[in-house]
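hiii so um. not sure if this is the right channel but i have a protein structure encoded as tokens and i wanna go backwards to a sequence. like what aa goes where. can anyone help
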């Protein structure tokens, strides 16, 4: 049975910030210190609690959203609008911050395990989805958990796209598969205020048996190409020999000169011995050439000075 492995952000998107912000908590401490100071100076009076009450109000009324965040404010359960980034004010008890929406680009890792391609090959595909929230209001009001919705939609679209492509196309043309996934996901998530910027296919894993079979096939293909190249070279060489034979047939003198050159190259080195049939020597007139080469070799030997003998 196919399984799904989804890597989701550690923090749930629907979690709101703590009820007290850092600014509100600081003001509460300041007003508490003021109340204590007034109590020590004037004793217990009813108006001493006023700074404390103001501090409590500010502690729950002042909220802070980061530069990349928008806060959804509800008043008595009804949507009132977005606040932030920066410091904003709500009415405690009446208003509440339901959600902080991160508008930066996010990365979701999606993995489809044992998905069948169009040619019925089981593969494991890893993909990365880059997306962002361009309309926080729609993302909050249109879908309960848009992070999980995007992740599950990406996984489903990945499986559908794998089933429409063959294995060779998935391996060699990953960019086209990524563009197709991006288009499908963008059409689905745009009504939620979310846009999918790009989808990248990170890895396509094949079964071990299929990898071995493809390796043997590639090896056989390389051997076939090598044999074809070798056969082509032999054919070209034989064509050259055939052309040379026609030239030698029309010009016997050229054939004799070529034979004499070959013999000369063979006997010019010292210690070389070439056995030539007597008929060939008489036919090609090689006797004189051989005698001249032998005399030249003896003259070279005699011209070499002998080494002096030691006393």
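sure thing!! here u go:
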């Amino acid at each position: 049975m196919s399984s799904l492995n989804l890597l989701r952000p550690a923090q749930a998107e629907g979690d709101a910030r703590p009820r007290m912000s850092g600014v509100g908590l600081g003001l509460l401490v300041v007003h508490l210190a003021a109340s204590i100071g007034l109590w020590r100076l004037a004793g217990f009076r009813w108006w001493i609690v006023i700074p404390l009450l103001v501090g409590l109000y500010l502690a729950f009324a002042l909220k802070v959203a980061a530069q990349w965040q928008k806060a959804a404010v509800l008043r008595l359960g009804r949507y009132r609008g977005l606040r932030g980034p920066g410091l904003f004010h709500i009415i405690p008890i009446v208003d509440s911050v339901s959600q902080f929406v991160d508008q930066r680009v996010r990365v979701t890792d999606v993995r489809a395990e044992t998905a069948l391609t169009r040619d019925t090959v089981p593969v494991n595909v890893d993909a990365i989805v880059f997306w962002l929230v361009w309309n926080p209001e729609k993302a909050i009001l249109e879908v309960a958990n848009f992070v999980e919705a995007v992740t599950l939609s990406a996984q489903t679209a990945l499986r559908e796209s794998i089933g429409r492509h063959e294995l060779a196309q998935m391996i060699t043309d990953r960019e086209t598969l990524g563009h197709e996934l991006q288009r499908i996901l963008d059409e689905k998530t745009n009504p939620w205020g979310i846009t999918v910027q790009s989808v990248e296919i990170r890895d396509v894993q094949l079964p071990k048996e299929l990898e071995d079979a493809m390796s043997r096939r590639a090896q056989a293909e390389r051997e076939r190409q090598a044999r074809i190249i070798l056969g082509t070279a032999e054919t070209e060489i034989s064509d050259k020999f055939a052309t040379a034979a026609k030239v030698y047939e029309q010009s016997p003198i050229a054939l004799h000169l070529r034979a004499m050159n070959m013999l000369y190259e063979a006997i010019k080195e010292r210690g070389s011995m070439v056995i030539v049939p007597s008929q060939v020597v008489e036919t090609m007139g090689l006797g004189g050439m051989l005698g001249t080469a032998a005399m030249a070799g003896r003259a070279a030997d005699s011209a070499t000075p002998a080494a002096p003998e030691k006393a």
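oh and Strands lie at 4-7, 62-65, 69-75, 78-83, 86-89, 95-102, 106-116, 122-133, 194-205.
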